[in-house]
Design brief:
The chain is an all-alpha fold and 134 residues long. The chain is 66% helix and 0% strand.
Length: 134
C-alpha cells in the first residue's frame, strides 16, 4: 500500500505542475488577445467633411468622364510593332506545328502506342532541321 500512496502523491504533483502550466498559458493567451486582437477589426472613422470632400472629388471624376463622352483616345500601334507581334506569333505556331508533326510521325512509324521516349521531342527546332523519320 505504501507504494500505491507514493504513486498517488506523484500523480498529484504532476497534476499541480500541469495546472500551473495551463494557468501560465491562459495568461499568455489573454495578454496576446488584448494586444493583437482585442476588438477584432476596428472600423476607420471618417469625418463628415472628409466624406463630403471624397464625394465631390468622385463626382468631379464622373463629370470629367461624361464630358469626354466616356471614350478613351484611340491607341495606335506602329507598323514595326505590328510586324514584331506577327513574327512572334508565326514562331509560336511553327513550334506547335513542329511538335504536332513530330508526334504524328512518331506514332505513324510505331506499331504500338508511343512511349515516353518517343514523346520527348526537340521542340526548339530551327527551320532548316529535318525530323528523323524512323
Amino acid at each position: 500500500m505504501a507504494n500505491l500512496s507514493g504513486i498517488v502523491n506523484q500523480l498529484k504533483k504532476e497534476r499541480d505542475l500541469v495546472e500551473r502550466q495551463l494557468t501560465g498559458l491562459n495568461a499568455a493567451l489573454t495578454a496576446f488577445a488584448d494586444v493583437y486582437g482585442g476588438r477584432g477589426t476596428a472600423e476607420r472613422k471618417v469625418s463628415a467633411s472628409a466624406r463630403r470632400k471624397m464625394s465631390l472629388a468622385q463626382k468631379a471624376r464622373w463629370a470629367k468622364r461624361a464630358a469626354s463622352n466616356g471614350q478613351r483616345p484611340k491607341r495606335t500601334m506602329s507598323a514595326s510593332a505590328r510586324k514584331k507581334i506577327a513574327a512572334a506569333q508565326r514562331a509560336r505556331w511553327a513550334k506547335v506545328k513542329a511538335k504536332k508533326s513530330y508526334l504524328v510521325q512518331a506514332t505513324k512509324f510505331s506499331s504500338r502506342r508511343p512511349t515516353a521516349e518517343v514523346l520527348v521531342a526537340p521542340f526548339e527546332l530551327s527551320p532548316d532541321v529535318q525530323l528523323h523519320q524512323g
